[in-house]
Amino acid sequence: VMCNNFICTSKRLSDDIKSFKTSSSEALIKLKKDLESSHQSITAKDVTLANLRQEIESLRSAIQKERLAHKDTKDALAACQTELQSTGADLERYFQVSENDRKKIHSAYLEMREKAVQESLKCNKYETEFCMLKNDKENCETKLKNNQKELLRLSRQLKTSKSGF
């Protein structure tokens, strides 16, 4: 009975071992498939991660270039602002000089206009004097002609009276 029991137990153990081997083999195969799948997934994720790292490096490089371009633009803008301020100061000096020149020119114009008025008055005075002298000359010429006529008449009269004596 014991032997029989032992055989039964032994057979059960053997069946259990076979069953365990089968199930462990199946579990091991499943585990191996899961491991391969995980490995493939990890490999794919590593590739994705490498791509992301490369993209991040590319973005960092682009950001660095943008920073340099921004710095260049900022420097160029600062240079333009400095140039603009310098040009503004030059224009301010130019307009100040122009304003001073304008004042001088206006002053000279007023002075020249006053001189022109004075010269015009002198010309009017000289013209008036000329007209008076011209009239005096004409009057004198007329008197001279009249005197010459009178002298001629008197001279003839004198000749006539001398010849009558």
3D structure, described in words:
The chain has 1 helix and no strands. It has one helix at 2-164. The radius of gyration is 67 Å and the shape is rod-shaped.
- What helical percentage do the residues reach? over 70%
Please provide the ordered H/E string of secondary-structure elements. H
Quaternary status of these chains? single chain
Chain-averaged pLDDT:
86
The N- and C-terminal alpha carbons lie at a distance of 231 Å
Globally, the shape reads rod-shaped
Care to give the gist of this entry?
Helices cover 99% and strands 0% of the residues.
What order do the helices and strands come in, and which of them pair?
Blueprint: H1 2-164
Highlighted features:
mainly alpha, 165 residues
